[in-house]
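Journal club prep — side note

Before the paper discussion, L.F. wants everyone to see what a predicted structure for a comparable chain looks like in token form. Sequence:
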Amino acid sequence: MCRLLGVVSSQPAPIAELVAEDLEPFIQLACEHKDGWGVAFRDELGAVGVVKGIDRADDSDMLRGLLKSCVTDMAVLHLRMASPNLAVEMANTHPFGDARAAFAHNGEIRPVAFLESLISPELLATADGTTDSERFYLAVREQMDHGATPEEAIARTTTAIREGAEMIISLNSMMLTPTGLFTYSEHDPESEVIGRRGKGYFGLSYHRSETKTLVASEGWPQPQPQWQPLPEQRVAEFTTGSLAPQIH
């Protein structure tokens, strides 16, 4: 399973400054979530950029340099813990996507063949890797390519997965587009992962301040009332113009 962190700010700044005191505790989670890292961000032209690596985040000079130099107002960070039998390679490293959207997932969905049934052959042919997570993204992308808004695409795709997949450990995900950050929280409360980790392991919470909002999975202290949980089976939308979550 993986770890997710997103940030949206009313003013651009280096990602390291936006995440501030929560950055180092997040990166240190790579002691366990050690199978690569990825960063998605909105660039100065309004497109989505993605940079990733397969080294440990806490040992990566490339990551630390990027976080200090990349000036943006929206970003998503992902630490990967590879699912069994999935290779640790760039093609399987989150976030997935292009200049239109970048998508990161924390969980597992089976069978992969069901996910592929939600994707057109032409779009499926663009897959780089072998993960269920990339196919989750392509199923969302399929909806967006046919006119759905990001929140509609995520809602339709997660409903289809819930109704048709044989196994869902978690659908927790973040998608960054040129217009906003979209998050989704849902997991199986009976999964063995919950038994090992505790009921909060797949939750997403957010912390809003005057100029920015952080959204993250757990792993370091996130005291309430500063951090508030996001509702399950709902899409939360965060924009630079309205830092509070809009729940769909």
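L.F.'s comment for the group: Residues 150-164 form the longest helix (15 residues). Keep this in mind when we get to the figures.
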